Every structure is written in structure tokens, then in C-alpha cells.
Amino acid sequence: MNITGTHIAYLHTCHRKLWLFANGIQMEHTSQIVAEGKLIAETTYLDRARKYTELELDGIKIDYYDAKNQVIHEVKKSDKVEHAHFAQVKYYLYILIKNGIENPSAILEYPKMKQRQIVDWDEGDLAEVEKWKSECSAITHQYDCPPLLKKSICKKCSYHDFCYAGEEYEL
Amino acid sequence: MKKTYYLFNPGRMSRKDNTLKFTPVDESGKEGMPKYIPVEGVSDFYCFGSLDANSALYNFLGKNGISVHFFDYYEHYTGSFQSKEYLLAGKMQINQTQHYLHTGKRMAIAQKLITGAAFNMSKNLKYYHNRGKDLEIQLTKIDLYAQEIENTTTISGLMGIEGNIRQVYYQAFDIIIKDHAMEGRSKQPPMNELNALISFGNMMCYTLCLDQIYHTQLNPTISFLHEPGYRRYSLALDLAEIFKPILVDRIIFRVLNKKEIQSKDFDFHVNKVILKESGKKVFIRAFEERLNETIKHRTLNKQVSYKSLVKLECYKLSKHLLEMETYQPFKIWW
Fold first, then answer.
1. What is the mean pLDDT of residues A47-75?
2. ipTM above threshold 0.90
3. CB count, 10 Å around CB of A7?
């Protein structure tokens, strides 16, 4: 299976979301919040397109890659699930290293919050990322969808209505 | 919030930069003042008049995920333009097929659909019963038929019960509606005003369901109650069963009893009656109002529109097919 940055991010957000997404049940097109995030990424740094390149490699897609300094720029709307963003760019770094790029690093950018976060490749990350990869395949290949875990992040998730739609009279 | 646009007037739709431009054209071919419609605000178009457009326009609509639904002069649904299927999910397709092929699994869904439909029909009758229309007999009969639903083992048996329920239900229309007689249900073609209105309303409901299914991973041709793929997107017919009483019938009662639609809004022919444009406009306005009305949803715990109830039904069905949760039909609770 082709594992993308989205898979790794969802592994760190919600296993159910990962399973649904990997099985083609995609909801992003219905979400205002996703649309807003996309808009922020597209309109914040207007000189980006000239300075950086878009990079597609081993099934991942990096929107802004600074090839001169080997730096990945990843724009996010909010740091609500920051650990998932971390994991996502760690996975990008892993792919770059596997392809022979030396000492890459990443910057997570939160333009709305006026914050940025540098992510380096550390010792021990290799084993960690490979563990995530196998967890990803295990979850996406299991027959059943992981159960609903009611979390506070559910409210802003594009799968919210899908997960919570039901009829009360059966309860 | 994206909106549905209903096009009655003939004219030309074109792309103007990143906006849509509609130029009305009158009978003599004279162009009127163009209207501009921002593309972000459009969910879909319903075309009742004649629309002139080129492939550049359809490419533009396709890229923006906007569907165009077409209807002929007799207000039949004739087809849709939809952008390429963008939500394909192999697992869903396979599971949906399996649920169709396995008689027990298919029956389980089909029974739920009829149960929901029967409940919503009863609810309509109860509303009028509580307002002084004596519908005791009809309510009792529907209740008795509904109890047989779970004992059915074949689709044809289930359809038989559905037919019985609907017959009793339509009898009640003569008690609810003041000035228009039902005289039994007639379709293809409808023989009187009430039947013409029901046909038009059901067609609107069907198209709405189709459009909502399109925005999910469900395959519209694989259905459970109706035979799949027979000339129509039959899954939309399945879902419409649940929503017709809520979205269509209540509006019919309203527009007729309040005289918003009258005999002058129909065209009478020797062998059929059809709704005139004036009547269609009144019905669609009421239908749109209804779709945008919101209720506090009990499991989502937020306000949702009647329109999104249809999408939520698709989600519940999806979860059933993926064996995540057993499907329970929507039953109106207010």
C-alpha cells in the first residue's frame, strides 16, 4: 500500500479516520474547515510558488520544498493536533533521507497563529517512522472499521456527521 | 452556503472568467440583461426551461463539482450532467453489491426502508388526525400492515405490503385535502391535479436523493428495495421512500389547502394533467423553504437542515454496508 503523509497524520489523530480514508471513504470535500485550511495554504505566502518547488516522491507530495537548503515547508491552520503534524513531516524527512538527501529538515508553519516550528531528523526517528508505517498497514487492512472514540477533536473533524449520524429511538 | 438554482426561463449560460453568466433569451430570440452567478455559491442547477450552453461551460461546472439536472416539458426527470465520479471506494462498492446479492441482507435493508416510510406516512396522518380530520381507520390499517413488514421474506411480498400501505395512505388524502379529489393514484400520466402534484413532488424528491447520493461513496445504481439499475438510479428511489412523506406530501397538503396552488396552475389535456410553470414555481419555493428549515438533530446535537437529513441517511446506510452500525431509518419525531 502507498502510505502518504495524510495516512501518517491520521494514524496520530484517529484510527477510525485512517481506516475510512484508506478505504476510500473520504469526506474532506464536505468540510468548511478543510476548505479554510486549503485557502490559508494557498494564499498566505504568495511568493512561495516561485521560491520553492512542489515535490512528488515515493507517493508523497510536498507542496513547498526548498531544494537549496533541503527544507520542507508545511502550512497548517491550527496546532490542535500538532503531534500529527510532527509525525507527518517526520515521514516526509524519512522519505527524503531514503532517497539520498542529506540532512533535510522541516518547518511547520501556522500563519494564522503567527508561529513556526522547526522539525529536525533525530536519532531513533528511523525506527519510530517504520513502526508507524507498519501500524498504518495493519489498521488499513483490517476488515472492521475501528470503533468510534468520542473525543473533543471530533467536533471539528470532516467525518463528524458520518460518525455521529444515527437515530436515537434505537437506544 | 451553496444554493440550488432552478432555471425556468430559456437562455444562455456561459463562463465569464470565474463566474457564471446567464443571459435570458425571449421567444423572438432577443437577449435580456445578463445575470451573474458566483460559482462558489452554486450547488446544482435544475433545468426546466431550455438552456443553451457549450462544453467550456460544462468543463467549468465539472471542475467545480456542480451538477445540472434536466427535465422535459412534462416535468419528467430526463438526466443529469455530473462531473466524473470523484468519490470511488472499492470496498464500499463491493460491500454494497454483497448486501444486494445476499437475500437476507437485502431484505433487512429493504424492510427498514419500508418501516421508515410507513412511520413517516402515519406521522403525517396523525398530524391531521389531531387537527380534527378523522383518520382513525387509515391509521389502524397502516399500523396493521406495518406489523407484517418484518415477517416478509421476499421483495415482492414486501412490495405488496408497501402497496397496501400506500393505497390506504392515499385514501386519506381525500379527507385531508379540501377541494381536490384524489380519485386513486394515477401516474404516467397523472389524470388529475392532485396526482400531477404528487408526480412532480416525487420527482423532485428523487432528484434530491440522487444528488445527495452522488456526494457520498454509495453507488446510485445498486439498490435494495427497488430492482437495481432498471432505467433509473434506483438507490435514489429507495431513499426517496423515507423522505416523500416528509418533504413532498406535507407541502402538497399546504399548497392545496392554503390555495397557493389552484386549478389555474394546471394544464388539462384529454389524457393527462400537468403542472404549469406558475404551479411548479410555487411548489419549488415551498420545497426549498422546507429543505432549508432546520431541526435540532438528536445524535449530532446541532441544527441540521431537512436537506442534510438525506445526506445523513446516506451516511447511515454507508455505515451499515461497511458493517459498522445497523441501519435505522429516519423517523420524524416532531
1. 87
2. no
3. 23
